[in-house]
Design goal:
Layout: E1 8-12, H1 25-37, E2 42-45, H2 57-71, E3 77-81, H3 86-98, E4 103-107, H4 116-129, E5 135-139, H5 141-144, H6 150-159, E6 163-168, H7 173-183, E7 189-192, H8 198-203, E8 208-210, H9 218-229, H10 233-249, H11 257-265, H12 284-295
Parallel strand pairs: 1-2, 1-8, 2-3, 3-4, 4-5, 5-6, 6-7, 7-8
Helix pairs in contact: 1-2, 3-4, 6-7, 9-10
Length: 301
């Protein structure tokens, strides 16, 4: 199983929708072209900022087919799975494999409070259902209410052949480093999940990041990665510092609304979020977003 391509800046691509909350095929194809032409190294379909929790399975399949077709082999397309039940995760994993995804990213079950034994069996069952198909774990404690332990990740990396990496969105660089340290003998590929910590994650051995910023400022987020890989560590750090104020300005908005707000400000016309979310209204939050984007040269002042 070749995993050499699993690296770089992967974008959890936003999902443009129409007035009936159906995927807008034209705008989705345009967004795929935008991120690819912006230098992104991979696309994650239906990640957190792709609003996976709002999308029905038939729409996910339609959207994945569109993304794979539009990417046309220019970058790999991964598929995000955030279902609670193991059975549904397996069904989605098989669908993703059948429709051209190169791998899957699986979030720990939300709402539940599972034991480590339950989590191990959950992830192993999904991986076993799609043998020789790369699977990434997705640790997002801020959204599900608990974190994956380093011990759990260590065991999965060493005992399940096609669990080959993870995205860590804990924001805890010590935890990210522990995931890397304890699995590095297997070639396990850890991605940073916080745009503001891409440089720090790579300093500890991460192979890249899964970065929301790729949706609306791909040139800034890829600049960090590209300079780091080229050995320009000072330049990479400065690129990180240029990006961070823009990324931090998103925190005042309702999640995950800001990603579409900022893409629309840059003229992307990606439409509205799924309800009950609404676009960020005029006021101090949107003003700060716009100001930081102007200071970073993303908008004209």
């Amino acid at each position: 199983m070749d995993t050499s391509f699993i690296k770089g800046v992967i974008v959890p691509i936003i999902t443009p929708i129409d007035e009936e909350e159906r995927i807008d095929e034209k705008r989705l194809r345009e967004q795929v072209d935008y991120v690819v032409e912006g230098g992104i190294h991979g696309i994650l379909a239906f990640g957190s900022n792709g609003e996976f929790y709002m999308v029905e399975e038939d729409e996910m399949e339609r959207g994945l087919k569109i993304m794979v077709e539009q990417a046309a082999g220019r970058v790999p397309v991964y598929f995000g799975i955030g279902a609670i039940s193991t059975k549904k995760c397996i069904r989605l994993a098989k669908m993703a494999k059948a429709n051209g995804a190169v791998g899957i990213s699986v979030l720990q079950p939300m709402f539940l409070k599972p034991t480590e034994t339950e989590l191990f069996q959950h992830f192993k069952a999904i991986a076993d259902a799609v043998p020789q198909f790369p699977m990434l774990l997705y640790n997002n404690p801020g959204r599900v209410g608990y974190t994956m332990s380093a011990g759990l990740v260590d065991r999965l990396a060493h005992e399940v052949d096609n669990i080959i990496g993870m995205k860590d969105t804990s924001g805890d660089i010590t935890q990210t480093a522990e995931f890397i340290r304890r699995t590095r003998d297997t070639g396990f590929k850890v991605f940073g999940g916080k745009d503001t910590l891409l440089y720090a994650s790579m300093c500890h051995g991460a192979v890249g990041g899964v970065c929301t910023a790729g949706n609306f400022m791909p040139e800034l987020i890829t600049d960090i990665y590209n300079k780091y890989i080229a050995g320009d560590l000072e330049g990479a750090l400065e690129a990180q510092f240029k990006l961070n104020p823009v990324r931090l300005s998103m925190d005042g908005a309702s999640f995950p609304v800001a990603a579409k707000d900022m893409a629309n400000l840059r003229g992307r016309e990606v439409g509205l979020p799924y309800m009950p979310n609404l676009p960020t209204p005029p006021g101090p939050v949107l003003d700060r977003i716009r100001t930081e984007m102007e200071l970073a040269g993303l908008l004209e002042r």
